[in-house]
């Protein structure tokens, strides 16, 4: 019998509302409180010298938002943009400030209220910290949804630095 989680490693309750989305045929979830908005895919301005997962920036109602391809971040194969592709603008905390960042996903699914009884701890793969961005595994209707800690997903990528640089370029 597996241990049921009540809180994550810092004592925060992980049950609650999650925006679910598809990526390479798998279902993922983000805390709804981290989601600012969902926008359709739009033209992205490339920023020089970025990593492959950083696609560039967009101008969203006057604010420059860095855009990350979540497939690239997770080492997945690229996919052509289609009418289901969208950008989820999340607010992640970085060095004490909230930074909006867009993540490209294949398709947004729904908002689910996931109860603590439906969440199991992330699997352990030989003690590897490579999956420390997973908050838990949501078991909903016979399927598993990978619940992400978006701050940790974005922590290794310098998306805020690229947004700052793009804003400076736009003001010249």
CATH superfamily: CheA-289, Domain 4
Distance between the termini: 61 Å
Strand content: 35-45%
- As for the CATH topology, it is OB fold (Dihydrolipoamide Acetyltransferase, E2P)
Mean pLDDT: 84
Structural class: mainly beta
Q: What is the N-to-C succession of helices and strands?
A: EEEEEHEEEEEEHH
The helix content is 10-25%
Number of helices: 3
CATH class: Mainly Beta
Major sheet summary line:
6 strands, mixed
- Whole-number tally of structural domains: 1
Q: Which blocks of ≥5 consecutive residues have pLDDT under 50?
A: 1-6
**CATH architecture field:** Beta Barrel
Rg, Cα atoms, Å: 16 Å
Total beta strands: 11
Shape: globular
Largest sheet: spatial strand order: 8-1-2-11-10-9
List the helices and strands and how they pair.
Elements: E1 16-23, E2 26-31, E3 35-40, E4 54-60, E5 63-69, H1 70-73, E6 86-94, E7 97-105, E8 107-114, E9 119-120, E10 134-140, E11 143-148, H2 150-155, H3 159-170
Parallel strand pairs: 2-11, 5-7
Antiparallel strand pairs: 1-2, 1-8, 3-6, 4-5, 6-7, 9-10, 10-11
What does this structure look like?
With 172 residues, the chain is mainly β. It has one domain (16-170): CheA-289, Domain 4 (OB fold (Dihydrolipoamide Acetyltransferase, E2P), Beta Barrel). Helices cover 13% and strands 44% of the residues. It has helices spanning 70-73, 150-155, 159-170; strands at 16-23, 26-31, 35-40, 54-60, 63-69, 86-94, 97-105, 107-114, 119-120, 134-140, 143-148. The strands form 2 sheets. Strands 8-1-2-11-10-9 form a 6-stranded mixed β-sheet. It is globular, with a radius of gyration of 16 Å. The termini are far apart. The model is unreliable at 1-6 (pLDDT under 50).
């Amino acid at each position: 019998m597996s241990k049921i989680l009540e809180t994550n490693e810092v004592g925060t309750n992980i049950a609650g509302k999650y925006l679910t989305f598809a990526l390479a045929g798998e279902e993922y979830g983000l805390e709804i409180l981290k989601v600012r908005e969902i926008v359709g895919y739009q033209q992205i301005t490339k920023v020089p010298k970025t990593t492959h997962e950083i696609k560039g920036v967009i101008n969203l109602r006057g604010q420059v938002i860095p855009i990350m391809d979540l497939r690239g971040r997770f080492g997945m194969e690229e996919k052509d943009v289609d009418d289901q592709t969208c950008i989820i603008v999340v607010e992640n905390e970085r060095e004490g400030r909230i930074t909006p960042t867009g993540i490209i996903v294949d398709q947004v699914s729904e908002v689910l209220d996931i109860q603590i009884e439906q969440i199991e701890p992330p699997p352990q793969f030989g003690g590897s910290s490579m999956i420390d961005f997973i908050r838990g595994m949501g078991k909903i209707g016979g399927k598993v949804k990978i619940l992400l800690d978006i701050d940790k997903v974005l922590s290794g990528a310098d998306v805020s630095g690229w947004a700052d640089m793009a804003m400076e370029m736009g003001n010249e």
